Model the fold of this input.
Amino acid sequence: MGILYWQMNDVWPGASWSGIDSSWRWKPMQYVVKRQFDDFVVQSYETNGRLEVFVVSDMPLPTTALIKVSIYQLSGSVCPSSSNNASSSNNASSSTAGTNDSLDADIGGPLAWSATKRVQVPAHNAAVVFNSSVTDMFSLAPGCSYSTCYVHVDAEADAVGPLAAYAPGGKIRSSADSFMMEFKGLKLTKPTIQLSDIQQTSNTTVRFTVSVGGNAALLTYWDSDLLGHFTDNFKNLAPCSSIDVEFKSDQGPVTPAEVITSLTIQDLFDTQADLYTPSAAAPTKP
Done:
């Protein structure tokens, strides 16, 4: 059994709802579909004033997962320096309910509120693992309103069955975001987006890190006119967070300089403005 959707790819150039164009370049939709077809997925949505979080597992055996539900400010966060990261993580853990596990570290800037719990994950099934009043949650996040903050959910499941042999560290991670109002009503501030740690990992693969400052970058999409695709894309980046990305070339050998100079980055704030070309550190040797 499975699910088919229309449509995966184009066979000729043209405007369409495909996830992959006729040159095999991935559109934003394809990255979302890829994440939704992972073996373990967390989802969150608001209905009737309550936030529900549920997990979906394709693993053949029951397992457990650590779920962290957080509220983040959309802008104005003060990013801790690298020397203060440890103390920031400790402060977040002290206000977090649950066990001290890997998700207790901040994924971005200072949290407005968070709660962590370990949950049971059924085999080949879905389950609701968190259900709370949105009003009650936001009352615990000082300075937050529906237009200035959003909910981020991070999940880390213990890999079981065949996946346990190749899942990094024996874990499978997934994340989801929920906004309490339409995007047009959010109070966004232009984010600062930077590239760093640019490395060539093979003659057809270049790795780099995308980082944002104290303002969240929503629906962030990095694109290249080179033939190929990225390992991840079209992400909501929390304040003070970063993500490691690889570009995999479909046109043969490629250098870090070629990839970086071909990149454009766009986020929700800039959808009505010119594409933002990021500043990048000099490529490092492999």
DSSP finds four helices and 15 strands in the chain. The helical segments are 28-36, 85-94, 134-139, 256-262. The first helix runs from residue 28 to 36. The first strand starts at residue 40 and ends at 47.
